[in-house]
Write a structure and sequence with these properties.
It comes from Saimiri boliviensis boliviensis. One of its GO terms (cellular component) is mitochondrial inner membrane. GO terms for molecular function: cardiolipin binding; phosphatidic acid binding. Belongs to the UQCC3 family. Keywords: ATP synthesis, Membrane, Mitochondrion, Mitochondrion inner membrane, Transmembrane, Transmembrane helix. This protein is an all-alpha fold. The chain has a domain of 36 residues. Helix content is 67%, strand content 0%. It contains 3 helices and no strands. The chain starts with a helix and ends in a 21-residue tail after the last helix.
Length: 90
């Protein structure tokens, strides 16, 4: 009888803990409109920001591709937008 009582108390405590945790999760989770506002504020949702990131990635890939095909140390360039000799372009 003692073990049954102990088991019931344990199950009740675990259930109460799970209930409190679930209630807190529901309270702090943003709802529909707030969630949409948060998504709009994310950096990659802005078309201009997306274009900027795409352009930056393309520039990096171009430099890496050029570095793979040349003996020049492109890391020493002052201006990566312009190709050149001797490590100092501009």
């Amino acid at each position: 009888m003692q073990s049954l009582r102990k088991t019931l108390i344990t199950v009740a405590m675990l259930g109460a803990g799970a209930g409190v945790g679930s209630a807190l999760l529901v309270i702090v989770t943003p709802r529909g409109q707030r969630k949409q506002e948060m998504l709009k504020e994310m950096p990659l949702q802005d078309p201009l920001r997306r274009d900027e990131v795409t352009r930056t990635q393309q520039l990096v890939m171009d430099v890496l591709q050029e570095a793979a095909t040349t003996q020049e140390n492109v890391a020493w360039r002052k201006n990566w937008m312009v190709g050149g000799k001797g490590g100092k372009s501009a």
